[in-house]
Known about the structure:
- The chain is of the alpha+beta class.
- Helix content is 58%, strand content 9%.
Amino acid sequence: MTITLTAFERSPDRGRGLARDMRVRWALEEVGQPYDVRLLSFAAMKDPAHLALHPFGQIPTYQEDDLVLFESGAIILHVATRYPGLLPDEGNARARAIGWMFAALNTVEPPIVERGMASIVESDAPWYAARLPMLDERVRGRLSQLSARLGDADWLDGAFSAGDLLMVTVLRRLSASTLLNDYPNLGAYIARGEARPAYQRAFADQRAVFTRAAGAN
Ligand code: GTB
């Protein structure tokens, strides 16, 4: 059985591990499953061959024998269900960890993505300066709530889980902003995630893709 992911041939994040293949790489490293990565150009992502795997023409996709998955959350839930290491065995703790996966993707990531997208596509628009404080406030609201819940715990609910893995990758998207500065426990939480050997291996692998592509120029 071979697992194959797709990732950007040239990630716009310049190797900072912010694209969504990073979270899948990290999950596979946590459970110790080897995988191949197929790199795609932006044009190839819109080819019929890739659209057959991913209806929205994006990365990442996940192929394992005759199983094809898209959506990073669904991929990680599959990996976490199939291989031990990312979800607790006990039923209630497992359900709560899955709840944190959804919280990361459905409650915390949307305002962060909206703010990031506005800074890319609206920064020249006349309304941007007025809109940014509102976007920041929405992100701050979620960070305050998350920070209060995490408190001085290492992870969101007991041992490290796929919920933490997703939450850390979502929060990392704020690393270029100052928004995390008011929440030292969240900064320490991200650092704990990034210090995990599985994270380090995944990060190095995606960074090597960028370094090779830059060297080829
Ligand atoms: N909900 C889907 C999932 O979770 O898998 C979203 C997938 C997605 O947005 N994929 C992006 C993509 O393929 C890459 S990760 N975009 C190309 C397209 O839509 O045509 C998003 C991303 C891109 C770049 C940065 N960056 O440069 O920092 C960060 C995140």
